[in-house]
């Protein structure tokens, strides 16, 4: 039986008086790896930020029946690399340790058990040998793996990732997607803004096809169709071959 973890109604985001995203009804299933796809300017990143109230939005959203404020400690957000200040002097271990703060609070130091969890998370993303390295010294893929380790330490129920696979190496992409699938199987809900349509059937359980509104939402095998893609992207989309057709 499916359980809905995120519900939104009558969501609307506008910039300088221009509407950029309108969603009448949004339901995201718990324990699924969900991709958000759509053309440039479709509102994919805006949707994540709106759900997290990082941009102004009209409408109602709840998380397992709770408000964002009530549920926020159980949510992790991995922003795009371009939004991160790489000049800030902070080590890999320190970044991952930030994942303990939602549970501990800002004025409590992590205990030995918390630091052990940081070590375990770094091993999971295969960066234990980079623990003391400054984040400015990391590749794009390594940085994304550090942010994922931070989310793992936080023990978040919902993880939002904004284009985590853009400009990263093959090894990092493999490590990240394997971990995301493992987390989803354990009951976590993972929501990923994604741009490579050819990998959708391999990577995701469910997909949201977006173009300033929801074109389709649901299991990949049901809604990731040529008809829905044409609706979202127009004739320029070409043909996306399903894995089973190869």
UniProtKB/TrEMBL annotation:
Stretch forming the signal peptide: none
Pfam families in the record: ABC_tran (PF00005)
Keywords in alphabetical order: ATP-binding, Nucleotide-binding, Transport
GO molecular function terms noted in the UniProt entry: ATP binding; ATP hydrolysis activity
Residue intervals of the ABC transporter domain: 6-237
Family statement: Belongs to the ABC transporter superfamily.
Protein name: ABC transporter ATP-binding protein
